[in-house]
Amino acid sequence: MKFKLIYYGELLINPKRRTNHLHEIRSVLSPQLKRLTEISPYTEIREKLMSRGTGIREVGGVRFFPIITPELDLLAEIDVQIMHPEILDTPHADIDNRMKTLLDALKRPQNANEVAEATVKAIQGKKDNTIFTLLDDDHLVTKLTINTSHLLAEPCGGLLRTKRKKSDTAFDHRLLLIISVNIRASRGTIDNLSVII
After folding, report:
1. What's the distance, Cα to Cα, between the start and end of the chain in Å?
2. Exposure check for the chain: N or C terminus, fewer CB within 10 A?
3. In the chain, count of helices (H) and strands (E)?
4. What is the full DSSP assignment across 108-154?
5. Integer CA distances (angstroms), 60 to 5, 70, 194, in order
6. Are 117 and 49 within 8 A, CB to CB?
7. Segment (H or E) for 121
8. CA dihedral for 57, 181, 84, 87, sign (positive or negative)
9. For 11-31, what is each residue's pLDDT tens digit?
10. Whether 175 contacts 151, CB under 8 Å
11. pTM of the full predicted structure?
């Protein structure tokens, strides 16, 4: 089964507050992943994990719900299209370290040290305080493909903005990522049959 995730924002190489940066990326992707689990056949992933009591993973006081987990023998093939406003030969085009940041954001934190203060604050007092992640762990990725191209216009409220103010330097650092995910199974079971067909 295939689907796409969209991220538009910064993808920093070695951010000073790494956990906060990962939280920013997860907060953009989480609503998309939640919506995915509300659409058939992906609803079955959510139902099966919840019925087993293995859907929610609490880490550092925060509830995470990974979609691709070893409990259902699921694996991921990921194709990332990076669109950027940079010149490719500049130091900013550090693809390998950007992919490390992205993969860390796609997986749930593995321990309390990886949970950002911003994450804890963001969920406090919310009725629906679960953060959806693509992966339980990045070892479930069996294939990673990366393509880059130039971003010639800035996505803006459903429109593409090609002109910007001289003071708007943030556009120079934001990337548009189209993340295509193909869910595969390490072995076919009754639990994952509907997802991998």
Report:
1. 7
2. C
3. 5, 9
4. PPSSGGGS-HHHHHHHTT-SS-EEEEEES-GGGEEEEEEEEEE--SE
5. 26, 21, 33
6. no
7. helix 117-123
8. positive
9. 988 777 888 999 999 999 999
10. yes
11. 0.83
